[in-house]
Amino acid sequence: MSELVPGAPAARLSPLAVLELLKPITWFPPMWAFACGVVSSGQSLQHRWPTVIAGVVLAGPMVCATSQAVNDWFDRHVDAINEPNRPIPSGRIPGRWGLYIALIWTALSIEVAATLGAWGFGAAVFGLALAWAYSAPPIRLKQNGWWGNTAVGLCYEGLPWFTAAAIMSGGAPGWKVTLVALLYSAGAHGIMTLNDFKSIEGDRQSNVRSLPVQLGPERAARLACVTMALAQVGVIVLLLVWQRPIHALAVILALSAQSLLMRRLLKRPRELAPWYNGTGVSLYVLGMLISAFALAGLEG
Question: CATH code at 27?
């Protein structure tokens, strides 16, 4: 097979390279959001475990993994600059196998989604469509950080949360669940902005207008922090209005701890963005679960 990235050596396709392409570390956010949706539905898990497990698998190892394969294929030339050791630019995924894997995983995801009823199937198709639109031309939402980060935030947080609540409830979730899921999706826009810090040089050379490229690292980091914080403030206000003061206090404490970490981040955003993704974001997703428990039992 011909090389598709200049300088990439020929190699045989290996299972480890395929696993690296599918990026298991990225599966956690949508799987966690799906779990939050299950909790927020307030429904009993009795006799529902097969459905829950199928949904978690669909959210992470299927749909999210598909999005990673799609992204790596269409970003192979950018990755040759930013991360030349990635499976495709390094040649460990040879020829067009990156594209083939993305197509195969798309089909497998749809097959799994078909077992989860109309809500699960529809959500999976929507998420897969966004995954391809995010990376693939001519749409390629990631060309602009405002649109691309919105799409990823929705697919990573809001969509799996909403889907799980719908599957568990057997219909559209109540507006309270939907609103909280959307708020956490909006906050995830900031998380995605911080994630773009690792690829600033390649994005500039490839004309990918991520927010760190458009705004500069300092302004982009401030925007990310404000976005994450405002979303959680909105959740806190709602929890207080809905008479869930203990849960609201817990989210306040999580946000307060994040604010201390944000102060450090803003001093050296380009260097510390990965550090914050491993610390502050953990507190963010903890607040998601707390909010899910608060929603359980509330009237929709």
Answer: 1.10.600
Amino acid at 201: E
Using alpha carbons, list the distances in angstroms from residue 212 to 137, 153, 246, 258.
Answer: 22, 17, 37, 21
pLDDT, tens digit, 9 for 90 and up, residues 150-184: 999 999 999 999 999 999 998 999 999 999 999 99
Kindly report, residue by residue over 45-71, the tens digit of the pLDDT.
988 999 999 999 999 999 999 999 999
Tokens matching residue 134: 């995010």
Name the residue type at position 14.
S
Flag whether 225 is in a domain: yes
Q: Decide if 9 is inside a domain.
A: no
pTM for the predicted model, two decimal places? 0.92
d(CA 105, CA 70): 10
Range of the domain at 234: 15-295
**Distance of alpha carbon 231 from alpha carbon 255, whole angstroms:** 10
